[in-house]
Amino acid sequence: MIPLKLTIRGLYSYKEEQTIDFEKLTAAGMFGIFGAVGSGKSSILEAILLALYGSTERLSDRGEKNSMVNLQSNHLLISFEFRAGKNNSQHFLARYSVKRNAKNFDEIKPAEHTFYIKEEGEITPIQQNAEAIIGMKKEHFKQTVIIPQGKFREFIDLTPGPRAEMMKELFGLERFDLSAKTGSLLKTVKNELIRLETQLEGLGDTSEEVLKEKAQIRKDLLATVKNAEESLEKASLKLQSLEALKKKHSQLLNFKSQWEQLQTRETEIEDKKKELKAFIQANSHLRPIWNQIKDWKLELEKATTGAVNCNRFKEAYTDDIRKLELQEGELREKAEKRPERESKIRDLKMVLEIQVIEKRLIEAQNKVASLQPRLNEDLEKQKALEKQLSSLDQELDNSRSQATSTQLAKLTGDIKDWNTFTENKSTLEHALDQIKTDIETIKAKEEKISVTTPDKFNDLESWADWENNNLKAIATAKEQLIENKALQAHVKNLKEGEPCPLCGSVHHPIPLSTDETEEQVTAFNKQLDDSRKTLEKIQQLSRQLYDQNIQRTNQTKLFTDKEQELKTLNFQFSTLKNSLVDESVNTLDDLKLKRKNLTDQIEKEESIRNTARQYRTQLEQLRLQIESGQQQLRVEEQKTIAQKSTLKAKEDEVSDKNFSSGYMQSSTETIRKTINTVLKDIEDTANLLDGKQKVLKEKRNDAATNLANLENFKKDKEEAGLKLEGLTKEFNELKIKLGQTDQELLEKLFNSNLDEDKFDREIRDYEKECSIVKSHLAALEAEEGITNFDQSHFDSLKEETDFKKTELESVRKKKINLDRDISDLQEKLETKKGLTKVLDAMENRATNLKELEQLFKGSGFVKYVSSIYLKELCNTANKRFTQLTKNSLRLEIDANNTFWVIDYLNEGKKRLLKTLSGGQTFQASLCLALALAEKVKSLNQADQSFFFLDEGFGALDKKSLRIVFETLKALRHENRIVGIISHVEELQQEIEVFANIVLDPEKGSQVLYSF
């Protein structure tokens, strides 16, 4: 994860929106975030955690979000842009926002926490959270990437169990937790074993012997089947010959039966022949004339009816035309008066216009009467304002002075400088007194430390040198004593006259004493412990003395700086007083009084100017108002003249003044209603006249058409009578000729639905069938053996054949069943062999899985892999830790995942990591954290990684701080970015690129940059 930009507003001391541009900071490889205690440095890390994981280290996890929001803000907003994913190739945006309840200041509304991805300039919301994007939980993120205050040594303080769990989650070691998978596989194998054993039990006592017995039985059955087939074939041939005779005998009987049935239908067919002949004569010769007679009867009836109707309509049309001609005459007479009526309508419209003009004339005269008094009043006001303005200008000329705003600004600046000099002088004098007191206190502490030095030593350094030499001498003596102790094993084997195994001497006058050696070793150990304790005490006193010397030097330098600052201040104060002597100003009160007099004079003149300015504004407004009134008066007078002229012209345009005078006093509504009524009547009269004329024309046309139709119907009636008479005569003559004189029978034939083709086909089919049956009977009766066929002999032979067929089928079924049994038996034998082979393999697999289950039980394999990762972590951390400790300490982890330290200053003995001093613990924590971050970088396949540190530098001495800083600087060559949060001044001097956090009383935390 590489940070790009962080925007904070409303978090803790960040009142206003502040943006930290990480792209410029991280470009240097190492950067710092500095500031005084409480300025808001650590809040930057908390903002990142809040944007990513929705909680901070201090409050949010406990639900106290109201304390997290700035007390002068109602809204908290954090926007964090960063790169993550494989090789940090993806650009993400995390946004976190909360608001206070408008009605309850202490209540915080639910947070809005969203993530976005930036691709090709487009921002798209995503459902993934920080854990999925970065690949780390919040706890691991705080131990490997961003380490807040109080969390730096958390990885060391973890117990072995949680530490292994962290390695498992951080590096995905759950893939090595194979216990559940192994158990599942073992369960599957056991179920498979049960299934295989069940299948084998179901196969029973299947064997090769049973298969051989079945094969012999099959061989015997094959011979039986062959004999049965030969016997059946002979019987079947005889039966086939008899079946052919039986079939022809049955055909003979069927044809005789058919002939008898045909003979019974002979009379019916003869009747149908006669009926068909009569039907053909009636429909082919008589029916066409009969149809013509019917058609002409209809024409005669139609012409007769039409003539009757036309005579009746002729009288009705005559009455209608007479009535329409009377109505049309009345409407034409009324329509001829239209011009006269339209002239009166024009006069009424002119009356309406005259009424409107008279109303406008009255309005114009009223406006003229009302405008004149108002205009006279405005002119009087104008004269009064001009007089007052002249008086104010005279007063301003009389009281004008030399006071300017520049003089007032100078006096105000002098007062401010006087107050500042006074306050700063008091502050500096108080600070000098405090510094003197601090220096005396430091000297007293140094004296107290010096008193603890023994009299025989000049200082702590000489005392430490003596103790180091003494420690080395005791250690050398102890080593010599240990060598002697090793020689004591040979003392009891020494005999006078026999050579020593070490030196070869045959004389042993003074052998080593065993008891004395043990006592001396114990004494040396006690001396070594005392000497080490003394050295630790000297080192502690040296550090204290060093710290006091640094503080005394700093305080002395600070005293000199403050003293010089006070001198400069006194000089500037004297310069200010001397510049004011010529103006009779000796005290601050004199200066304030002079500024007050000048202020009063300027304010008085400004008041007069404001009043004059107001009068001029009023005068200008009044002048514009008078001009507007005069213009409006002229316009209204012109309107009055114009309306009078228009009124006279309109009165002259009225044609019938007597008629119009009666409507002059009528209302507009009454006149308009009269006009609309007359207009509507004129329009209705025209429409009615047009309609009547059209109807009259249509009636006259209809009457003429009716007369023409009457003549046509008379002609049609005469023609139909002549045609009908001729056709009737022709029809009667043809009936006699064809012998069809029965009129009733003819009409039945005409109306009959007889199907001529069907009757003809039925007669021909009958004659054809008679011919076929007769020929078949003759042929069958001529063949030998058909007429005297023996049915009983045929039935006996058929029963014999059926019996042999049944017997053969029975034998064949036995063979088929036996073949199936043999096939099943062969299949079962193959299955049994395969199942036995699979069962053996499954039993071996079950044995192996049981052994693996024991190995993986209780996450044993995960713990083993985790311990390997921790050992690699220790090896990576030791590359820096041994350098920081000058090869005196080395980290190690045991089988229980507990951290130990190998102390080379104490014969390479092991002790717990927790026994290190604060500074050494910081060094170990730093090295482990860097190693852990390096592993995470490798896991994420990133070319570049990021590490943020907010702790520990205050616990280091100057030399250790230098070593740690060089170590951190070296990380830049490993393409790793390091961010440091601290208030230590030495670091601020070493790091070139940094952001400085300043707490402003009004604006809150402000971010400044070194670039």
Automatic annotation (TrEMBL):
InterPro entries: P-loop_NTPase, Rad50/SbcC_AAA. Residues 5-275 form the Rad50/SbcC-type AAA domain. SUPFAM superfamilies: P-loop containing nucleoside triphosphate hydrolases. GO terms for molecular function: ATP hydrolysis activity. One of its GO terms (biological process) is double-strand break repair. Keywords: Coiled coil. Pfam families: AAA_23, SbcC_Walker_B. Residues 186-252, 375-445, 581-639, 710-783, 808-852 form a coiled coil. The keyword Coiled coil applies. PANTHER family: ABC TRANSPORTER ABCH.3 (PTHR32114). This is Nuclease SbcCD subunit C. It comes from Cyclobacterium qasimii. The gene is sbcC.
